């Protein structure tokens, strides 16, 4: 079975080719079928692989396809690695991917035939790239998928290419990702120079002897982390993600919530040996993650676009995952990736259902009271909110709690700040819920008339994801509850190489109970607060002032980047174009030509035509030559 | 007679020729001055030929061969040159070289 | 003999083309280029089994010790293949166009093909120099007869500029010849000269400037945007796809082996100039609204990276350069084909006036996107492997150089995406409203380009293996 792993990325690729080449001939239902079924088939294969990997005594296997790059002593094979980590990600990607493909067949149904096929082709291409990313057996393969998902994200954000602002958002996403990619690339090159290989096990086995705090590993870790910042939208490279909401909503669910943005977490979890050996970089990771978590949560408090709230929430949750990586809780980070994939995909799809019903409206101030029109969407969305807020019993609670407990073990201030972020999360999610689904409907009559529950193709994925959001947490229940932590046990072989270097902080059970109780109570308080404030929300149209205004404008970070980086860069470029190039180098070049011409003009005047003068010049020259001849 | 006498005479003749060429405007005079220079050189050649022959270094008359070359060339030159001057005079009714500056620019 | 055929086929076809009328030259050009491609592929097969059968020597000017010596190594083979494919692509892409006095147009193009192939196969310095000029002269006429409005001034500048470089190189070759006890211009005897460091010191610049002008490397590049802008697009394809490779080829074949110490001494300077060129040209490309100039500057940036990687003198860098020479040639010709189509349709080059073509001509948009992405080195397109290896080589030479050069890939993304957006996306305007999708000949040419892009992107091994012997030879010096 493991040898058939190439089928997993190949099937979506096939779907991409069929849909891409046949976009003019295939009917919508056929396109939808090809797109969804290929991913579903990939999911089935992944599931079989997963069960094989899960069996006891399984060791990582590498499937070599062919030699990709082979120069001198450097060999980079086109190879897939199947182990616990990649098998888990395969399941998440193909599983959530299948649901979102099915959802899309209904959501995108209003598109023209050709663009419907184009959409599915891109989506399949994305799944292919993402699978390459997690299956790659070396960093270059990972980089291939890494840039591939960036490309698909670009194509899908700018899917409605007639709209200039969507195109700008797509461009921004691609370029910001490329900044990160440069860091990643530098990290890979550093590895090649230092270790002469990019294959995971070889790199890790050569890294371990360098010991703790070696500057080389520090540099590699930092560079890889820059790559992760770009892909996983961490400070300072996060601003593309909220803009990426310009894409169709299922895309936001799949790419910008469930899978692509977690690539950075995957990469660091994969490189756990390198990070464990570079504790100061780990601290950087933790601090950046924590800062992003709180910062993005604060912005989400005041957003009015349903997708923007979810986007900032995603940035914030990614911050938590990096916090987990930074404190060495790799398993917890992967756990949160998984639960987050469920509930965030659920929330995005739910918001898509709302937007679909509202005829494209995304401003929550113009919604309200949707509960009675869309019951299924309502309760699934509510489950998503509960899960992300961290109410005990739902998946988000377990994963977030595990992260916070680890953070507490490393540094209490991490815990406190993380908890503040979690409380904000609970508040803004329920603000979103109450404004959207409760109270009075605030839209136009036409919209009210149009309101309807979405078709089954959309609600079934919602229900499946809602169930997963509830039960998904039980695979990683902390041992405090007296059960085994299945996930931690399953992933243990991945993190085994770094275990000897890791510093473990063990919390006593009573402390863990205390922390859990504290966060649960505070979260419920926040939810009640939100309910009290927003359950009967009326749009007063009043302008925000003070801090609220700053938050609504996202701390003016976009404006800051524009003023500090973009504008000066363009100014510099214009300076190069107009001054250095035209007035400098080219004028110099032309000047040489003109100088020669001018000099010739002057010399021409010597030719007076006066024979006497010619002879005089001749005689003088001869005398001068004689004199020189004598003197020398 | 010491060879210096011939050298001085020859230099004097040559310089007269040069000055004539430089200062006169009449093409015919310039032409004659050129002949003067050529003859100055001829004189020098003959004188040196004699000197080296007396010293027994070369055969007598071997350098004087050049003189005949020069004379032949000079004769040819006179033929061409005078023909040009004649044509110039026919066209411009003057042999003043300063008006012959149409080649400039 | 196959090597001689590679030169002779286009040469004779070019001479014949002058005498043909109507669509004769066009057809002849396609046939000749097909034959050249077939010959090149045949030579490639022979290269593995009987490499000696590809070299050919004849007495040429025995008094000077100069011979007519052609031969093929991996790099020469790769470039001959590129030349053959590139001309085929050009001829297919412009098949539906009618040029005034097309017999001379096609004749000159074919002659320049012969000259280029001659450059890539020459193993005698004097012969190299002569082919170097021979390739230039037809291009001069092509530009000055079929070019844009400012063609006379621009072509004059181009010619004088490159000719100045050639003359410097000639001085260098003659000096080397005078120092050569064998009284020969042959590559082997030149590489065995072992001149003193002080001589290599200044000789380096004679050759480097010649090659740097051709590539072009900052600050010798100003002829290039003007020329690309004013030349007829088929000529621009040849200029940017193949002629700039002459400079890189010259460095690898002649400069590095003949003057190794000079190269070693000035490598830092050359790399710094190249890297300045990358950043500088990328920045200018970002603020260009003229499509042709944008691609011209992007080409300067890409060539800058190749030049820097050569001087890094590492195995990975060298392999990357050789691979990228091929890929860059294919990619940029693909880009020019699309530019040519756009210019033909709308008769403007200003991107701000375009837009919305993707709606009307989706296939053109797809081709442009794929080729542009290959041009910025997206993985699984051919641009990636070359760039990756070059970066790796440069990184091993100096981290900071690589880090600065790497900024180029970010800037490249900026200007390429800007270009795609302005040309293809947005709403169709009055100008682009009525456009139709590609014609069959254009689809054929672009499909060939895309096929090469994807095949070499996934499986670059054939080219890497082909050029590895050149790398091994060059790195010995």
TrEMBL record, chain A:
Cellular localisation: Endomembrane system; Membrane
GO cellular component: endomembrane system; membrane
Pfam families: Proton_antipo_M, Proton_antipo_N
GO BP annotations listed: ATP synthesis coupled electron transport; electron transport coupled proton transport
NADH:quinone oxidoreductase/Mrp antiporter transmembrane domain boundaries: 138-424
Membrane topology reported for the UniProt record: Multi-pass membrane protein
InterPro entries: NADHpl_OxRdtase_5_subgr, ND/Mrp_TM, NU5C-like, Proton_antipo_N
Gene Ontology molecular function terms on file: NADH dehydrogenase (ubiquinone) activity; NADH dehydrogenase activity
Stretches assigned to the NADH-Ubiquinone oxidoreductase (complex I) chain 5 N-terminal domain: 68-120
The entry's keywords: Membrane, Transmembrane, Transmembrane helix
Transmembrane segments: 30-50, 86-104, 116-137, 143-161, 182-200, 212-230, 251-269, 275-297, 309-335, 341-358, 379-400, 412-434, 455-477, 513-530, 611-631
The keyword tRNA processing belongs to this UniProt entry's keyword annotation: no
Main localisation: membrane
Keyword Transmembrane (UniProt): yes
PANTHER family: NADH-UBIQUINONE OXIDOREDUCTASE CHAIN 5
UniProt protein name: NADH dehydrogenase subunit L
Source organism per UniProt: Chitinophaga jiangningensis
UniProtKB/TrEMBL annotation, chain B:
GO BP: ATP synthesis coupled electron transport
Main location, first listed in the record: membrane
GO MF annotation terms: NADH dehydrogenase (quinone) (non-electrogenic) activity; quinone binding
Assigned EC number: 7.1.1.-
Top-level division of the source organism's lineage: Bacteria
GO cellular component terms attached to this protein's record: NADH dehydrogenase complex; plasma membrane
Signal peptide: none
A Pfam family the protein falls into: Oxidored_q2
Membrane topology: Multi-pass membrane protein
Keyword Transport in annotation: yes
Subcellular location: Cell membrane; Membrane
Swiss-Prot/TrEMBL catalytic activity: a quinone + NADH + 5 H(+)(in) = a quinol + NAD(+) + 4 H(+)(out)
Gene3D superfamilies per UniProt: 1.10.287.3510
Transmembrane segments: 6-22, 29-53, 65-89
Enzyme kind, highest EC tier: translocase
Record's keyword terms, sorted: Cell membrane, Membrane, NAD, Oxidoreductase, Quinone, Translocase, Transmembrane, Transmembrane helix, Transport
InterPro entries in alphabetical order: NADH_UbQ_OxRdtase_chain4L/K (IPR001133), NUOK/Mnh_C1-like (IPR039428)
Quaternary data: NDH-1 is composed of 14 different subunits. Subunits NuoA, H, J, K, L, M, N constitute the membrane sector of the complex.
Role, per record: NDH-1 shuttles electrons from NADH, via FMN and iron-sulfur (Fe-S) centers, to quinones in the respiratory chain. The immediate electron acceptor for the enzyme in this species is believed to be a menaquinone. Couples the redox reaction to proton translocation (for every two electrons transferred, four hydrogen ions are translocated across the cytoplasmic membrane), and thus conserves the redox energy in a proton gradient. NDH-1 shuttles electrons from NADH, via FMN and iron-sulfur (Fe-S) centers, to quinones in the respiratory chain. The immediate electron acceptor for the enzyme in this species is believed to be ubiquinone. Couples the redox reaction to proton translocation (for every two electrons transferred, four hydrogen ions are translocated across the cytoplasmic membrane), and thus conserves the redox energy in a proton gradient.
Family the entry assigns: Belongs to the complex I subunit 4L family.
Record protein name field: NADH-quinone oxidoreductase subunit K
Gene this chain is encoded by: nuoK
Automatic annotation (TrEMBL), chain C:
Bilayer-crossing regions: 74-93, 105-123, 129-146, 158-177, 202-223, 235-256, 262-287, 294-313, 325-343, 364-385, 397-420, 441-459
Membrane topology: Multi-pass membrane protein
Location relative to the cell: Endomembrane system; Membrane
Superkingdom classification of source: Bacteria
Pfam (any one): Proton_antipo_M
Keywords, alphabetical: Membrane, Transmembrane, Transmembrane helix
Signal peptide: none
InterPro entries: NADH_Q_OxRdtase_chainM/4, NADH_UbQ_OxRdtase, ND/Mrp_TM
GO CC annotation terms, alphabetical: endomembrane system; membrane
NADH:quinone oxidoreductase/Mrp antiporter transmembrane domain sequence ranges: 122-407
GO molecular function ontology, one term from the record: NADH dehydrogenase (ubiquinone) activity
Any single biological process term in GO: electron transport coupled proton transport
Keyword flag Thylakoid: no
NCBIfam families on file: NDH_I_M
Protein family (similarity comment): Belongs to the complex I subunit 4 family.
Protein name, entry field: NADH dehydrogenase subunit M
Species: Chitinophaga jiangningensis
Organismal lineage: Bacteria, Pseudomonadati, Bacteroidota, Chitinophagia, Chitinophagales
């Amino acid at each position: 079975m493991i040898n058939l792993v190439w089928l997993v990325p190949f099937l979506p690729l096939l779907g991409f080719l069929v849909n891409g080449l046949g976009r003019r001939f295939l009917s919508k239902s056929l396109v939808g079928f090809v797109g969804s079924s290929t991913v579903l088939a990939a999911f089935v294969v992944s599931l079989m692989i997963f069960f094989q990997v899960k069996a006891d005594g399984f060791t990582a296997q590498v499937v070599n396809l062919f030699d990709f790059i082979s120069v001198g002593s450097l060999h980079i094979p086109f190879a897939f690695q199947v182990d616990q980590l990649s098998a888990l990600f395969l399941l998440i990607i193909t599983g959530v991917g299948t649901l979102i493909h099915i959802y899309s067949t209904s959501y995108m149904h209003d598109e023209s035939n050709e663009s419907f096929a184009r959409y599915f082709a891109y989506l399949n291409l994305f799944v292919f790239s993402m699978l390459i990313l997690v299956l790659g057996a070396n960093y270059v393969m990972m980089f291939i998928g890494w840039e591939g998902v960036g490309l698909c994200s670009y194509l899908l954000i700018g899917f409605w290419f007639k709209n200039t602002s969507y195109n700008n958002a797509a461009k921004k996403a691609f370029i910001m990702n490329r900044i990160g990619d440069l860091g990643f690339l530098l990290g890979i090159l550093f590895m090649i120079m230092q270790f002469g290989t990019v294959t995971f096990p070889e790199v890790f086995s050569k890294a371990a002897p360098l010991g703790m705090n070696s500057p080389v590993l520090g540099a590699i870790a930092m560079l890889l982390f820059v790559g992760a910042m770009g892909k996983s939208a961490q400070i300072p490279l996060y601003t593309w993600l909220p803009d990426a909401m310009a894409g169709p909503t299922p895309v936001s669910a799949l790419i910008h919530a469930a899978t692509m943005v977690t690539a950075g977490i995957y990469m660091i979890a994969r490189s756990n040996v390198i990070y464990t050996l570079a504790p100061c970089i780990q601290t950087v990771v933790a601090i950046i993650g924590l800062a992003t978590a709180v910062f993005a949560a604060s912005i989400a408090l005041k957003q009015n676009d349903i997708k923007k709230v979810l986007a900032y929430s995603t940035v914030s949750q990614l911050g938590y995952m990096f916090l987990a990586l930074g404190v060495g809780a790799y398993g917890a980070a992967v756990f949160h990736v998984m639960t987050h994939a469920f509930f965030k995909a659920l929330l995005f799809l739910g918001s898509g259902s709302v937007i679909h019903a509202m005829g494209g409206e995304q401003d929550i101030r113009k919604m309200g009271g949707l509960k009675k029109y869309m019951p299924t969407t309502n309760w699934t969305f509510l489950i998503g909110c509960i899960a992300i807020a961290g109410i005990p019993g739902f998946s988000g609670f377990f994963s977030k709690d595990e992260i916070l407990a680890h953070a507490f073990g490393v540094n209490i201030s991490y815990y406190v700040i993380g908890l503040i972020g979690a409380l904000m999360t609970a508040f803004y999610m329920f603000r979103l819920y109450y404004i959207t689904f409760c109270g009075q409907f605030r839209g136009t009559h036409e919209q009210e008339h149009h309101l309807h529950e979405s078709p089954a193709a959309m609600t079934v994925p919602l229900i499946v994801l809602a169930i997963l959001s509830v039960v998904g947490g039980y695979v990683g229940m902390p041992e405090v509850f007296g059960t085994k932590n299945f996930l931690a046990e399953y992933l243990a072989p991945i993190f085994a190489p770094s275990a000897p270097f890791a510093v473990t902080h063990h919390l006593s059970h009573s402390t863990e109970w205390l922390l859990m109780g504290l966060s649960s109570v505070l979260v419920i308080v926040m939810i009640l607060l939100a309910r009290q404030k927003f359950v009967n929300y009326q749009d007063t149209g009043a302008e925000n002032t003070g801090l609220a205004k700053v938050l609504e404008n996202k701390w003016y970070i976009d404006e800051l980047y524009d003023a500090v980086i973009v504008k000066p860069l363009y100014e510099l470029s214009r300076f190069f174009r107009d001054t250095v190039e035209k007035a400098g180098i080219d004028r110099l070049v032309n000047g040489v030509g003109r100088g020669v011409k001018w000099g010739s003009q002057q010399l021409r005047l010597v030719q007076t035509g006066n024979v006497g003068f010619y002879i005089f010049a001749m005689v003088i020259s001869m005398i001068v030559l004689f004199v020189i001849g004598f003197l020398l | 007679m010491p060879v210096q006498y011939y050298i001085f005479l020859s230099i004097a003749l040559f310089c007269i020729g040069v000055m004539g060429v430089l200062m006169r405007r009449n093409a015919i005079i310039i032409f004659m001055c050129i002949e003067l220079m050529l003859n100055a050189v001829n004189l020098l050649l003959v004188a040196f030929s004699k000197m080296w022959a007396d010293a027994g270094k070369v055969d007598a008359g071997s350098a004087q061969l050049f003189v005949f070359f020069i004379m032949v060339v000079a004769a040819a030159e006179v033929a061409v040159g005078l023909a040009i001057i004649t044509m110039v005079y026919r066209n411009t009714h003057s042999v003043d070289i300063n008006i012959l500056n149409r080649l400039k620019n | 003999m196959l090597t001689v055929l590679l030169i002779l086929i286009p040469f004779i076809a070019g001479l014949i083309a002058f005498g043909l009328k109507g669509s004769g030259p066009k057809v002849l050009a396609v046939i000749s280029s097909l034959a050249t491609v077939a010959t090149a592929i045949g030579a490639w097969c022979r290269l593995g089994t009987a490499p000696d059968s590809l070299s050919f020597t004849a007495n040429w000017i025995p008094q000077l010790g100069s011979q007519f010596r052609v031969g093929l190594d991996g790099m020469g083979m790769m470039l001959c293949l590129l030349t053959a494919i590139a001309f085929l692509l050009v001829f297919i892409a412009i098949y539906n166009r009618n040029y005034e006095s097309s017999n001379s147009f096609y004749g000159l193009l074919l002659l320049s093909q012969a000259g280029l192939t001659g450059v890539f196969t020459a193993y005698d310095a004097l012969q190299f120099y002569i082919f170097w000029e021979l390739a230039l002269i037809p291009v001069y006429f092509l530009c000055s007869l079929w070019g844009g409005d400012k063609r006379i001034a621009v072509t004059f500048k181009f010619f004088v500029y490159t000719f100045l470089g050639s003359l410097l190189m000639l001085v260098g070759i003659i000096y080397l010849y005078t120092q050569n006890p064998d009284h020969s211009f042959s590559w082997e005897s030149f590489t065995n000269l072992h001149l003193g460091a002080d001589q290599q010191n200044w000789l380096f610049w004679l050759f480097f400037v010649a090659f740097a002008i051709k590539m072009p490397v900052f600050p010798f590049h100003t002829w290039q945007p003007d020329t690309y802008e004013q030349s007829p697009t088929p000529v621009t394809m040849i200029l940017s796809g193949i002629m700039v490779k002459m400079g890189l080829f010259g460095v690898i074949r002649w400069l590095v082996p003949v003057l190794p110490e000079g190269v070693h001494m000035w490598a830092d300077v050359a790399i710094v100039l190249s890297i300045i060129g990358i950043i500088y040209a990328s920045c200018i490309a970002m603020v260009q609204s003229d499509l042709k100039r944008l691609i011209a500057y992007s080409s300067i940036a890409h060539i800058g990276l190749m030049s820097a990687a050569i001087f890094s003198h590492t195995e990975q860098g060298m392999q990357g350069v050789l691979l990228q020479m091929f890929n860059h040639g294919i990619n940029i010709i693909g880009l020019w084909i699309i530019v040519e189509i756009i210019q033909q349709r709308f008769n403007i080059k200003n991107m701000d006036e375009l837009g919305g073509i993707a709606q009307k001509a989706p296939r053109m948009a797809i081709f442009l996107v794929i080729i542009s992405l290959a041009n910025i080195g997206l993985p699984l397109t051919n641009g990636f492997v070359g760039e990756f290896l070059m970066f790796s080589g440069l990184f091993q030479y100096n981290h900071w150089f690589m880090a600065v050069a790497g900024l180029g890939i970010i800037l490249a993304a900026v200007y390429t995406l800007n270009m795609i957006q302005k040309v293809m996306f947005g709403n169709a305007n009055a100008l682009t409203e009525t456009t139709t999708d590609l014609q069959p000949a254009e689809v054929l040419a672009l499909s060939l380009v895309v096929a090469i892009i994807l095949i070499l992107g996934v499986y670059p091994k054939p080219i890497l293996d082909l050029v590895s012997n050149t790398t091994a030879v060059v790195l010995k010096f």
